[in-house]
Structures are given as C-alpha cells and as structure tokens.
Amino acid sequence: MSDTHRAVQWWEEHIDYINALLVFMESESNKCTQSGNIELSSISIDKTCRVGIQGGRPVRRVHIGEISRVRARQQASGWLVGGDEKTMPSVEWTGWDNCTVVSENAIEAGLTQFEHAISNPTLIKRLSFIAQAKSAFTRNDFRSSFILLWFVIEAAVKDMLLLGGETIDSNQPSISSVLRRLKTRGLMSAELFSELDDLRKRVRNKLMHESQTATCLPSDCMIAAGAVITLVQPDLATAIDLRWSFSVAF
C-alpha cells in the first residue's frame, strides 16, 4: 500500500479474478435445472472493502448505514450451522429477504471452472471484461457494453492469427485485415467472419470515429457477446451460459 500505483494495479487484477468467478457462477447456475439462477453484477473497487490512505498508512473506512461485511458473514454462518431454516439472521443488512437458493452442484461446478481458468491470466482478464460488459448492458449502457466486448474480440482474433502460425507486423494491422486473413486461412468460420465484419463496419467504426452520432442497439451487443463466447471457448473447460437482459423505462 505504500506504492499507490502498484496497489491500484494489484487491486484491478484482484477484481478481475472475482469477476471471472462470478461469470462461472452465473453460468453454472443457469445450466443446473435444480438451482436458482445467479444474476452476476460485476465487482468494482467501490463494492469491495474500502481502504483509505492516511499518513502513508492504510486505514479501513467505516460502512455507513449498515453492518460490516465481516459481521454479516459471521451471523450468516451461525445461522447456517445452527440448522434453523425458519429463522433468518436478525441484522440490519438489507438483502437477506431476497436470497436465492443455489444448488451445491452449481457452486462446485463454478469453482471447478474457475480452478481451470486461474492459471490463464489472459482468460481471466477477458472474462472480467465480459462481466463488466454484461453489467453495463443491464444498466442499458449499450455503448460501454459493446466497447468492452470489442476489446476482447480484437485481442482474441489477433491471438488466433498468431496461434495459426501467422506473424503480426509491429505496425499493428487493422482488425479488418486480421479478420480477412483468418477467414482466408480457414481459421475462422464464414459465419463468424460475417458477424464480426458487419459489427466492425456498422458499429465499432462509428463508435470510434463518429461517436456523437453513432448508435449501438442491444441486438448489436448480443451479437458481439455471442462472438466473444465463441472466441474464448477454446480456453474454457466447458461452455459458459450467460443471460443478457435489460429493461427500458420511460
């Protein structure tokens, strides 16, 4: 904590692993017919333990208006161990009345997926981007959602080209060039190429170069999300199943 820049970098990486775990937990709860569904909400620094720096020393900030997470966890643990399913913990912490019962099998499957992924920091970062994009989508922030997904797409297709034995010039070839080379070499299906090339021309380029007039629809994000899942699939032990939802209020 004495080096603020290093502390921020470490915390960002730490949160990436949390978000990746949340992706697996939602996915496995969706797959399990005997489980309630977890709806992930990506974690940001403001949702984790709050640490401030005073005089160069880290200090804990008080959670105003609610009990600490540690106390809530202790009370929950006592309730679970006690075996009284009718008596919920008597705490001020809001949220217990909306608990979702998740199958133990779903939790174990999610942890197994996470265990398989933790040795691949690149995959962890991409899963974290997916989690953040999904949360932005839920907030109806479709531009941010699409941009986060496109970060993963561009990085993943360049990796595909390298793994296919091609070289990438130091001049950083355009994404259109990379997509064409992948299709020509048979490293990418014609369907996936068509989807990504359409998104590149119709959405990505306008967001980057004509941002004031560009639009991004929920359907564009959904297509991008499907492409991202396809691209990261080779690094996963099993497929992931996420539910993308948004609402519109006037």
Description:
56% of the residues lie in helices and 3% in strands. Strands 1-2 form a two-stranded antiparallel sheet. It has helices at residues 4-31, 69-82, 104-117, 121-138, 142-163, 175-184, 190-209, 218-232, and strands at residues 51-54, 57-60. The protein has eight helices and two strands; from the N terminus they run H-E-E-H-H-H-H-H-H-H. It is mainly α and 250 residues long. The protein is globular, with a radius of gyration of 21 Å.
Give a brief rundown of this model.
By secondary structure, the protein is mostly helical. The chain contains eight helices and two strands; from the N terminus they run H-E-E-H-H-H-H-H-H-H. Helices cover 56% and strands 3% of the residues.
Secondary structure elements and pairings:
Blueprint: H1 4-31, E1 51-54, E2 57-60, H2 69-82, H3 104-117, H4 121-138, H5 142-163, H6 175-184, H7 190-209, H8 218-232
Antiparallel strand pairs: 1-2
Question: CA-to-CA gap between the ends?
Answer: 45 Å
Number of helices: 8
Strand content: under 5%
Oligomer: single chain
Strand order of the largest sheet: 1-2
Based on Cα principal axes, name the global outline: globular
Structural class given helices, strands, pairing? mainly alpha
SSE pattern: HEEHHHHHHH
Give the low-pLDDT segments.
none
Mean pLDDT: 85
* Computed CA radius of gyration, to the nearest angstrom: 21 Å
Helix proportion: 55-70%
E-strand count? 2
Please outline the major beta sheet. Answer: 2 strands, antiparallel
Name the descriptors.
single chain, 250 residues, mainly alpha, two-stranded antiparallel ribbon, globular
